[in-house]
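The following block was generated as part of the benchmark described in Methods. Ligand: 4'-deoxy-4'-aminopyridoxal-5'-phosphate.
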Amino acid sequence: MGERVYNFSAGPSALPASVLQSAADKMLDYEGAGMSVMEMSHRSKPFEKIIRDAEANLRTLLDIPEDYEVLFVQGGATLVFAMVPLNLMTGSGKADFLITGQWAEKAYQEAAKLGDARAAASSKEQKFSFIPKVPAGEYRQDADYVHITWNNTIFGSKFPEVPDTGCLTLVTDMSSSILSERIDVSKFGCIYAGAQKNIGPAGLSIIIIKKDLVGKAKENIPTYLDFKTHADNGSLYNTPPAWCIYIAGEVFKLLLERGGISAMEEINKRKAAKLYDYIDASGLYTAPVVREDRSLMNVVFVTGDEELDKKFVADAKAEGLVQLNGHRSIGGMRASIYNAMPEEGVDKLIDFMKRFEDANQ
Ligand code: PMP
């Protein structure tokens, strides 16, 4: 077997090696079942334990209050872009969006197909280099909710704090930052995330939703898209993405062993600060996002010369530091340093960046 690389991919991303190893060890026989989790009935006792433990551990990690449902669904965050308006844009039929990146825009466009979606603010003209601050009074006061994207995976920005939306329900896409820092779940009506960055394999999305927001869906929507379908059936209405839920559950256990989210936050802040400090001090690299809104998970930077950026990505790859290219729509570089990226990986990247800078000035 070859060596594992340092994988800086934005998603699907690196998973903890210990989780992968343990899953491999149990691949042919999961804890005496004589079969793998992939081959098991989702109604079986072992799987029932896997899904309920996963939910309980996620509740502990994020300190999710009792009056919230935790749903495990398929379809990626992209399907949740549609589920949210189908389920929640059902009072006045209006929702306000903060456009802070491409995913935020996609969530907005999807909602605009289904109701009266409005962009309350956007940083698009400034290449999404900051998070717009909107006073609570500027949202439509009869909106069913305000939607934000907590961490902007492509541009490398994030909300520095929960925006004030007054009494309006706040919904957030946390696909690329969930489990990376402490969050106060009670400030949100709904939090959702695709799994393939900080949780587990692609194919699973997690929706954390206040119970009183369940059961408000439009009539005649497809059964699968109604939050109530999943809430009423403990995410077992139909066959769930069982393998993904199993791996997610193993990641949750590991995070608890490592000290939970506050411990992860401390490490993540240290990892990101090292990288940004080096970039800010360097003569070659710049980070386009304003300091106060920088992502802890996706560190975006450029040299200012596209050819040199390409060389950077290729030279880094040759040293086992892979997937450092920026999103195909913007180029440059992006180091995604989710929970599973060890601090040592960030140190190795900085060491490479120094050598590359010396050699290419
Ligand atoms: N939202 C954010 C913030 C993302 O980063 C992504 C994927 N990179 C998506 C939504 C879309 O997720 P999916 O591919 O799971 O539909």
